[in-house]
Amino acid sequence: MSIERRPSWLERKLLLSPIKAYLKHKYQIELERNDTAKLKPPYIILANHTNKWDPLFINCFVEDPICFVADAPLFRNPLLKRVLDYTGAIPKATAKNETGTIRNMLTAKKHNRVIGIFPEGNCCWDGTTKDIAYATAKLVKLLNIPVVIGHVKGGYLSHPRWADHDRKGKITVSLEKKWDEGELQAMSVEAVHQGITAALAYNEIAWQAEQRVAFQGQGLANYLERALFVCPSCKTVGKLHSEGRQFSCTACGYSVIYNELGYFEPKHKPMHFQFVHQWNAWQLQYTKTNLHEQQLYKAWRQALADEVKLYVSSSEESPFMQLSTGKLTWHRSYLLYKPHHDAEPLKLPIERLEGINVHLNSKLDFYMDNNMLRFDFFHPRSSAYMWYQVIRHSNLQQEAKLQ
């Protein structure tokens, strides 16, 4: 099986049946709507991304194995690459728009395959849909095949991206045919983009307000500091700490409880936010506004200093090779990596970093000079997400100065 060959009925059963059985045993998965039941390939599924298992949750209810577009770094693992190639996954680099990705999608269309895309690019950190890649609208118009909008609901609360363990609750899947073949051709790319953005808009907490499902597990707040890194009470960066269900600031003592509904409860009033997505939205605005304030520079520098392992890959196909271990620090216009041995420090100008991305929840990836670098954080509570946001805003600040 590959992009070029649509699997037979027997192959589909052999591949998908055990996956369905496993997921339905592990999670309480329900089908809300399935317009693909009477839809013949080729067509494309655009879905929100709340959980690392979203591709499998969706494929549980789609007859054909889906050719999902997957980040190129996944293909650098030799064993995983064989699995992805077999299922017809389509590699997409995060640093650039590859014509190869488009060619593979056109090939999938030609061979009557189902194509799957998560236009957000990565799993969300707080249960809400993030910015939709503008290129998705251009691609949908180019393919000119039916478009199905997929929603996975409960996936975030079942296993938040920042957490290490699953929670037992409920997941529902909806697959709604939004546009038929030819329906988008008369629309502008901007209109298509707005339509896709509106169709994929989702807030897990709004869904939870109606469902009131308890997501049970141990240590529900553990590792929440991977996602939330600014205290709303004292505005200190990098001093938040999780333990069990409690999430506290070690600088000022502000503390909340994270409950089974995914809500915060007050431990010491006042409580600034009830939900993770509210806290995250506030801290991102705070970062944007205060990152380059001179009086806060030392505080950001202290927070952005982590022990890491450095990996490098020199081509799209080559696996990552570990070069060394060391310390990574932020310096406004550049990152500085100091190896633990006596090698020369590596200065990484932020303006030269491309395709910045967080892989899983603890690996910071980017391209520089045609090499892909990966910094894997030693400490499980380090926030690669904070690094990503700071680098992104540092880059935006430099671009603004050049204008």
TrEMBL record:
Residues covered by the Phospholipid/glycerol acyltransferase domain: 43-152
Name of the protein in its database record: Phospholipid/glycerol acyltransferase domain-containing protein
Gene Ontology molecular-function annotations: acyltransferase activity
InterPro entries with a match to the protein in the record: Plipid/glycerol_acylTrfase
Pfam families, A to Z: Acyltransferase (PF01553)
SMART domains: PlsC
Transmembrane segments annotated in the record for this chain: none
